Amino acid sequence: MSIPAKAFTSDWTFIIGQYLAIAILPLVFYFYIPFFRKLKVTSAYEYLEARFDVRCRLFASMSFMLFHIGRIAIITFLTVLALRPFIAIDPVILVLLISVMCIIYTWMGGIEG
């Protein structure tokens, strides 16, 4: 919701980051991926545990989970903000309804179902 609104109201300066990501891809392909392939680890968490200790691995996995829980909460809240003018339901109930609908949709197979 924010990127199209920003592009409409101002300029396209945010797209520089997208071009930089594309420019960095060759470096990732030639240096980053071969480095980790030589290590014979199956995940970044395994590498963190081998390089540092189990506390670092736990911190990384907890940070990842908290980031995505927050991300899902923000996405759900923005959906409620977009639907609120059209649906006269309490926002808390609307968040719960959207969450239950997403869980059922995923349980039934999502797009592939």
TrEMBL record:
It is found in: Cell membrane. Keywords: Cell membrane, Ion transport, Membrane, Sodium, Sodium transport, Transmembrane, Transmembrane helix, Transport. It is a multi-pass membrane protein. Its main location: membrane. Gene3D superfamilies: Sodium/glucose cotransporter. One of its GO terms (cellular component) is plasma membrane. GO terms for biological process: sodium ion transport. The chain crosses the membrane at residues 12-33, 58-80, 86-108. The keyword Transmembrane applies. InterPro entries: Na/Glc_symporter_sf, Na/solute_symporter, Sodium:Solute_Symporter_SSF. GO terms for molecular function: symporter activity. Belongs to the sodium:solute symporter (SSF) (TC 2.A.21) family. This is Putative membrane transporter. It comes from Salmonella enterica subsp. arizonae.
